[in-house]
């Protein structure tokens, strides 16, 4: 992955361009290795193994404390750079076999077949899995919503691109509604359970506008170089749906959102199809 800098007026905009070749630059390249065993860490501050201590719990997790490209962030902590030239997020999803797993710290749906892809600046990232955090991890000018969905993609170089959607209380989420009875039935420590064919195209985005920045995984090992795309529209989830998601994870992980991290000078870009930011 490389950053290409172009000028618009007097401002330098980092346009996230991904080469078709694999350049393994340690500071930028993220592996797909989210930790599966949640036992060593918690989200509880002051517990000795909460978010502030993650980087000290395992040598492989040191970036959680020392990294300069950590996630999540407050997307409106500084004025985003409006950049229509980023282009529309290209999604090409299709139904495929999927399984659900309770990882203790979250519920994960993994597609086992070819479930399609997204394309960012000409680079293909294949869909792998999705999972939920509650409350939302990213904030909007300090506002933290009730839930956040992370949709994980990986390219041929094993670099990660995550699409995120925030949710507030309201009408039930249709995608979650299709899976909820399976989610309620899977317990911590169970093997993955078949879901049959699941269409990721059922995940509703609701807006073409999005935020874009370079960050990290939000759980250990907090690997950096993740291309984040956060949909601008806040969608809705019902209280019953969120209660079900929280009820099946390990005690202490009902709230599984990492605190926001410092920007460390990173730009946050905002794509809108027109310069009229009042449109969807």
Automatic annotation (TrEMBL):
One GO MF term: zinc ion binding
Every copy of the Alpha-carbonic anhydrase domain together lies at: 39-272
Catalysed reaction(s) here are: hydrogencarbonate + H(+) = CO2 + H2O
Q: Transmembrane stretches, by residue range?
A: 12-33
Q: Which UniProt keywords apply?
A: Membrane, Transmembrane, Transmembrane helix
Cross-referenced InterPro entries: Alpha_CA_prokaryot-like, CA_dom, CA_dom_sf, Carbonic_anhydrase_a-class
Give one GO biological process term: one-carbon metabolic process
Keyword Amino-acid biosynthesis on this protein?
A: no
Q: Which GO terms describe its cellular component?
A: chloroplast stroma
The record ties this protein, via SMART domains, to:
Carb_anhydrase
The cellular location(s) given in this protein's UniProt record come to:
Plastid, Chloroplast stroma
Superkingdom of the organism of origin? Eukaryota
Query: Which PANTHER family does this chain map to?
Result: ALPHA CARBONIC ANHYDRASE 4-RELATED (PTHR18952:SF271), CARBONIC ANHYDRASE (PTHR18952)
Record-stated family: Belongs to the alpha-class carbonic anhydrase family.
Protein role: Reversible hydration of carbon dioxide.
**What's the name of the protein?**
Alpha carbonic anhydrase 4
Which organism is this entry from? Hibiscus syriacus (Rose of Sharon)
